[in-house]
Structure formats: C-alpha cells, structure tokens
Write a structure and sequence with these properties.
This protein has helices at about 5-10, 35-40, 45-60, 75-85, 90-100, 150-160, 175-185, 205-215, 220-230, 235-240, 245-260, 275-290; strands spanning about 1-5, 70, 75, 105-110, 135, 140, 185-190, 195. Helix 4 (about 75-85) packs across helix 5 (about 90-100). The protein is mainly alpha-helical and about 300 residues long. A two-stranded antiparallel sheet has the order 1-4. It contains 12 helices and 8 strands. Strand 2 and strand 3 (about 75) form a beta hairpin. The protein is about 40% helix and about 5% strand. The longest helix has 18 residues, at about 245-260.
C-alpha cells in the first residue's frame, strides 16, 4: 500500500481536521525543497506533478487520510485512473519516482498495516479534537499533557469562544468610496496664482477600497474632508494615501474641530465606515446626481 509521507504534518491544518468528508486540502506551495528540485529535473516532470496532485486529492478522501486505500484494500494506478479520469501510466510513473529515497514523498507500506504503524482516522467529533495520552489529536502528532492553547484546556476554550466573523470587504464601487472621491480636492494652487488639476478619479477606486480594507477602523472620509478644507496645495490622491504623516495631521485637526464644535457624547462610537457613514455617503452621491452603485466621479488630471 502507498502512504503519503508525513501527511498529518504537511496536508492538514486546524480547519481540515474539523471536516470528515473533505472537499479540499491544504497543500504546501514550497518550490525550493530538495525533493521538489529533484523531481523537477525529471524528463516527465509535468506528468509526475500532475499525478502527485491528483494522488493527494484522492488520499484526502480515503478513510484514513494519507493512506491510499479504501474499504476494498490498497488503491492501484488503475483505481486512480477510474477515480480521476487521468491515465494509469502517469500514476505508475509517479509511484516509481516519488517513492525513491532521494525524493521520498510516498512510502510503501505492508498490507494489512501493522497496528504499530496505523494512523488514527480523522473525524469531526469530540474525540477527534481532544488529545489523548498517546499524543495524537485528530490524527495529528500532538503534545499530550499541555495546558493552554496546545492542551485540553485551550481546546475547550476555543470551543466556547468562537472567533468573531470577519468584516465584509468594501468593493471599489461602495458608496463610501464614491463619497471619498467626491470629497477629495480636484485642483491645487501654484505659484503666480494659477491652478492645476490634482490626479484623482475613477482609476483610484481600487486604491481607496484597498486602503479601507487594510485599515478598517480608519475614518478616511473624515480625513479627506478635513484635508480639502485645510490645504490649498493638495497632493495627488495616491500619494496622499501613502503618506501617513499627512493623513494623521489632518485627522487630528478634524478631531480637535469636532471637540470644539460638538457637545460631548455619552460614549464614543466607532470611527470606521459605519452605517451612519454609509448614509452620509449615499446622501452625497444623490446630491451629485447618481445612484451609489453606478455613480462615476469625473476624472481630473488623469
């Protein structure tokens, strides 16, 4: 029988161990290891690596992940052809090359497997995620007897406290992005009193959305409005986004103005793009004469 060497170490993670009927597998993307480099020098490397990828996918669905065997016994190259639709020959070649000691991605095991060499099956139930005295957790070498995040106490805590749901990504045509484009200054003063266009327009939507997603708590719309009021010579939008010092100066000025002009609130609210921000953004876009999803800000200086 063929076994993927160190399956538990390389092809499982905390998410895959929770799933019994796997539909995906985590796969390393390292291309500089000795085994990979040796395999890549083979004349038929494309066929070998294609077969290897298919072998991993099949192994992830076997009763014991990593062991190429099902209820009827070890899987053969012909079985793999029937399972994947790819020719038997490439699986024979892959088994021949990848079991060589100089690569060693696949091991040849006796069948039936001796009890001492059996790997516990992975199941998404209470027993599967609780380390036992042998040091195995869901078929993964564990650290029995540990406290905290690596031991029983840490696992119980993870069950009770699931991680918070991530925020939804802000798309380039989000109303907040449209409002930021509309509020950003479009011209700047030059020597002699003449004015020139600032580089800001539709092509900057992606950069604004990327910034908002990377800095979800940063009040960019507030900073842009303050910047438009405070400077006669604004930078191009992309340059300003990449200048944290300039952004923080105008943000501090906006906060100071808010404290002077507004009565103290009962409790501070969120500073990111909240529902109130989105309502304000929609109002700005409607005043400009377009719907939030389709409104285009005219390119200036691009």
């Amino acid at each position: 029988m063929f076994r993927i060497k160190d399956w538990a170490l390389h092809y499982e993670n905390s998410e895959s161990r929770k799933v019994k009927g796997a539909r995906w597998l985590p796969m390393p993307n390292k291309h500089d290891g000795k085994g990979f480099r040796r395999m890549s020098r083979h004349d038929r490397k494309v066929e070998i690596f294609c077969a290897w990828t298919l072998i991993l996918q099949v192994a992830s669905k076997c009763p014991v992940r990593g062991d190429l065997a099902d209820e009827n016994g070890p899987l053969t190259p012909l079985d793999l052809e029937d399972s994947t639709g790819f020719p038997e020959e490439i699986f024979r070649l892959a088994f021949e090359v990848l079991t060589e000691a100089r690569i060693g991605w696949i091991e040849v095991m006796p069948w039936p497997i001796p009890e001492s060499q059996q790997i516990p099956a992975i199941h998404p139930d209470e027993k599967a995620i609780s380390p036992d005295v042998s040091g195995w957790t869901a078929g993964i070498p564990g650290r029995a007897g540990k406290e905290g995040i690596e031991g029983r106490e840490g696992i119980e805590r993870r069950r009770e406290d699931p991680p918070p749901s991530p925020r939804a990504a802000i798309p380039p045509h989000d109303p907040v992005v449209t409002a930021i484009l509309a509020a950003y200054p479009k011209t700047r003063e030059r020597e002699g009193g003449r004015r020139e266009a600032v580089h800001v327009g539709e092509g900057d939507r992606g950069k604004i959305a990327d910034f908002l997603n990377e800095h979800p708590d940063y009040p960019l719309l507030i900073a842009v409005k303050q910047y438009a009021k405070a400077t006669a010579r604004p930078k191009n939008l992309r340059e300003w986004l990449q200048n944290p010092t300039a952004r923080e100066i105008v943000l501090k000025a906006a906060e100071d103005a808010k404290e002077r002009d507004s009565p103290p609130a009962a409790a501070p609210g969120p500073i990111g793009p909240t529902d109130a921000d989105r309502q304000a953004a929609r109002a700005i876009v409607q005043q400009l004469g377009g719907a939030p999803e389709t409104r285009r800000v005219q390119n200036v200086g691009t």
